Amino acid sequence: MKAKELAQKILLDIYRNLDEFSKDVIRGDLADIEFKGFYLKGKNGEKVYIRSLEDFENLEDFEVEMRKYKLKSINLKNLDSGLMIINLSSRASKEYKFDANDYSILYPSNNTTVEFKERVLKWMELEDDELDEKIIEFDTKMNDILEGLLEEVDMDKEISVYIDVFMDVNKVENFVENDEERIIIWIHPVFLFSNDDVLRGLLAYELSRFKGKFLEIGYRDVIKYCKELKKLTNKKLKVLEKIKDIANRHGDVESLNLINEIENE
Predict the structure, then answer these.
(1) 63-86: b or e for each residue (b if 16 or more CB lie within 10 Å)?
(2) Which end of the chain is more exposed for a tag (fewer CB within 10 A), N or C?
(3) Reading across the β-sheet that carries 175-178, which strands appear in turn?
(4) Whole-prediction pTM value?
């Protein structure tokens, strides 16, 4: 078999066996790929290492020996820096084989999670017209949720809510601007894909800084927001302690159980 044919087989087998998140990283061209342990051995014993896709593209064609390749690990620890490392090992074999049965995956070490990365990819993959449509839907939904909250709690200031398309997408933070006349809540793009209960909880949480009654009326949804935030960032909001007190006063066992679940995940 020729070198390019074998190398292409290996690359295809690597891709076929990746988890969906790693495939999304490649499809979205979100990282440079570095290979370790990926080499071809010629009939005369020479070794040619492939350390990048560029090496594959520039590979000279020559007769190679058959080997069994094993996918050992996928390293996404430095994904934020734009690097994905794929580790392979191989040994001589009578025919080409590829083993990907028990490889490990090392995910980014920051506070974000696989769920967060997948949402960021969904956000980045939206075409301009799709993004515009999503933002319009989101604005309409948030205005309806806000209107419902303000029917239960009076506020002297005008309140506006927007998705922040210019925010650093790698940090899950919502920003609140407050001046004498109005409050503006800027929401992180990952919440574009959240359900209504979570969004109601998000708004109730942010507005509870100004009036505690928002927490009283929306504490069940704030719990759902906290649960989703934990799923996205592994962070636990301190507000759960206040919500425990509210749930205890109401004898709300279901909410207390959900808080306990969040705290012990």
Answers:
(1) ebbebebbbbebbbebbeeeebbb
(2) C
(3) 158-163, 182-187, 175-178
(4) 0.63
pLDDT digit string, tens, across residues 14-68: 999 998 878 878 887 778 999 999 999 998 889 999 999 999 999 998 999 999 9
Find residue 80's DSSP bridge partners. Answer: none
Domain identity same for 13 and 93: yes
Structural domain for 77, as ranges? 3-106
Residue 191 near residue 164 (C-beta atoms within 8 A)? no
Q: Within this chain, do residues 125 and 255 fall inside the same structural domain, yes or no?
A: yes
Query: Which two tokens mark 123?
Result: 């956000």
115 exposure class (CB count in 10 Å sphere: 0-12, 13-18, 19+): middle
Number of domains the chain contains: 2
101 lies in the same domain as 28: yes
The Cα-based distances of 80 to 83, 114, 122, 170, 187 in angstroms read 7, 13, 16, 8, 21
Distance CA 92, CA 205 (A): 60
